[in-house]
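Q: How do we represent a protein-ligand complex in a form that can be generated token by token?
A: Start from the inputs.
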Amino acid sequence: MGFSSSSSGFPSFYLVLLFLVGTSIVSADFYNEFDITWGNGRGKILNGDLLTLSLDNSSGSGFESRNEYMFGKIDMQLKLVAGNSAGTVTAYYLSSKGSNWDEIDFEFLGNLSGDPYILHTNVFSQGKGNREQQFYLWFDPTADFHTYSILWNPKSIVFSVDGTPIREFKNAESNGVPFPKDQPMRIHSSLWNADDWATRGGLVKTDWSKAPFTASYRNFKADACVVSSGKSSCGGSDNPAWLSEELDNTKQERLRWAQKNYMIYNYCSDSKRFPQGFPPECKSA
Ligand SMILES: *[C@@H]1O[C@H](CO)[C@@H](O)[C@H](O)[C@H]1NC(C)=O
Ligand SMILES: *[C@@H]1O[C@H](CO)[C@@H](O)[C@H](O)[C@H]1NC(C)=O
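Then emit the structure tokens for the protein with 2-acetamido-2-deoxy-beta-D-glucopyranose bound:
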């Protein structure tokens, strides 16, 4: 159902208007929001409210958002590759372009049936990453859809899972750490083979007899500022609440709970990797 094909006249004009005004509130139509960018038919949008990516022995697949965003609160529900997903990686991230790009990453590293996925996160600013934190999840991410969210505003970046914050990357520009805040980013996702490193560091290879591997997406929702031709538009509001949102006490407690019980790697405590001292943002991360 595309608006471009609807007949002209008053009602459809209001429909379009309603759609534009409502776009930051209702879960949006995948046909309008995303393009399948690679995979030669392995990525599919079904009915506008469901998108699937698949991977087999000749290719993975991926999509990206039509919009570029600069700050936002973005939710997506994902259901990951089930069964033996070892070797597969489902990446879901925001990224700008160029050699000094910014990036906010969720990557889901598959595993053998019954063994836990790893949720890998990273933040790049001006082309520099190396800020990995990894988690196990408190549920089976292949059994059902769960919501993975990124809150990105000038003060911080918060990664959440079903509303529970798992990671906060604060703006530490005052300590000389560049923060992503000058380059609009698109949403990207891809499903690909990474059996050289993903599962137990590359020990477990992809079992191609289980292909195709499929990940599914639904209920995309963006409260976000869309940048187009140099102009930013924040869903009808000049100063939406999420643009200055910070973690309240309850959320901070949830964050500590997730990190205490589910974090399995934190670059900020990997002293072998940083013998000269931790990166400056680790003081606040
Ligand atoms: C890829 O998978 C197909 C279908 O299972 C199989 O017929 C084909 O031989 C495989 N190709 C390679 C290069 O493994
Ligand atoms: C896979 O399972 C093994 C064994 O439980 C675990 O060590 C590993 O962290 C799991 N995840 C990945 C992506 O390797």
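The pocket of 2-acetamido-2-deoxy-beta-D-glucopyranose (ligand 2) is lined by residues 109, 111, 115-116, 118, 198-200 (CB under 6 Å). The longest strand covers residues 213-228.
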